[in-house]
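G., the chain you wanted modeled:
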Amino acid sequence: MFFYDAYEYKKVVHTGLKENVRIVDPMDTDTLNIVANGQGTLKQQIHINGHNIIYNTVFASLGFGGISESAEHLEIDVLNQSDSNSYRVHLMFYSSNGMNILRLGFKYQGLSETAEQVNNIQLKGLIAERNDSTYSLCLEVKGGQIIHGSVFECYQGCLKGYAPTFTGNAIKRTVDSIGLRNGNIYFKFMPTMTRDGSRVYATNPAIIGNHQINIRSTASRIFWTIRNHSLSYSVNQTITNYRVYLDSNWHLAYSNNQFGNSTYGFLAYLRDLVLSGKRVRVAVQDRIYSVQMTSIFDKTIMVHLTDMYDGNAWSQKKPIHMRQLVSTSGDYHYCSFESESDVKINGASGMKPVAWYIENRCWRKIIRFDSEKNIVSGSTQELFDVASTGKSLRFILEYESCSDIYDVIQVHLFNTSFVVMNSVFGNVKSGVLECSKWSYTLYSTGTVEFSRWKPGRIMSFNRLLEKSHHYVQILSEM
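Predicted structure as tokens:
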């Protein structure tokens, strides 16, 4: 693999970089400009039905007076675990004669799409900024002409594992994975819904897409609209104004060949960093992926990679979803399906070399529960206080022979101490052809619940309690 050939192993000194979160007007032009310029991450907090919910946003735009959108999540009644109603949704926050929210998604029990507008809600923004200077502009294009940096500079930075942010036409998108081929850069974004053309909200809420920057700096976009349970059309557009930022606060920690042998670094070092809560990015073949869930089995580390589109999507204009499982042992499993409305599952297993990148930012333990839900360290009040500030959270489930680490994408805040956290990731079972998606819900009582569902826009799901873990701990970014 070419990602790490030029590197010499060295131990990285981890600095005490801090995540600073401040309250902002969520649709203020200055706020959205800060986000669009790669200088901060916007979160949204709404007060609804008597409690606050904080969402990570994966899309921000100055259009229509200001729009941002939450990550996809499974919406369930967290106060009633016997309730089987659920929605797979994105929330769109927008300003149109006042602050509003649009629920975009798919309802399981009603077997229908949803596009519900909620008016006159209490909404505030939380912008997370870090006291470091690791974000840099590697490419800026106006009118189709480069005015700063180069595609080569971005390409080289991505090779080092730096995390990119793509902004264009005052829009910021969270990058899920990137492809690096022949000097071209392919960006895959976190999936979002959208409004329909010039309408403020969508009646058919489902759009997903990719961006590409070629070696001549020309950026193009391809996306697919799914309507009436069938693929509708695809569009390829040229983008003449955009920026690419790189976060250099990542380093190569380890790499292994297809046989599971180390080709760079020490596995114990990688394992310690993962268990400390640090985020992971992995390189497989010619793509680098963000990771939302990591598993450690004894001396093997495994990651479930988020959805992507096959490289043929650009030439065939065909959305092929892939979910992958890679590990430090070299084991590789994947499954794919053509679209969410035309489920045709394929899969394979094999051996792949992997490079493992780790962020340098530090995390601290807030609270820890044992298998009986007793608090071993920390307190629920401290958890509530930290979660209320909007700081980034992760949680670790510890079992007898393994540990799983998850990103928190949504936080519910009840009363003065009750907190509920949600995480969603794509799952591939080794040896089993299953492209399921999993949602974990962790309660500040120590209860852990999970739901899972298979591909398809409208599929039934199971809501189950997790009973086998030995410990649960929650971490916050420092």
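The two ends are 33 Å apart (CA to CA).

Shout if anything looks off.
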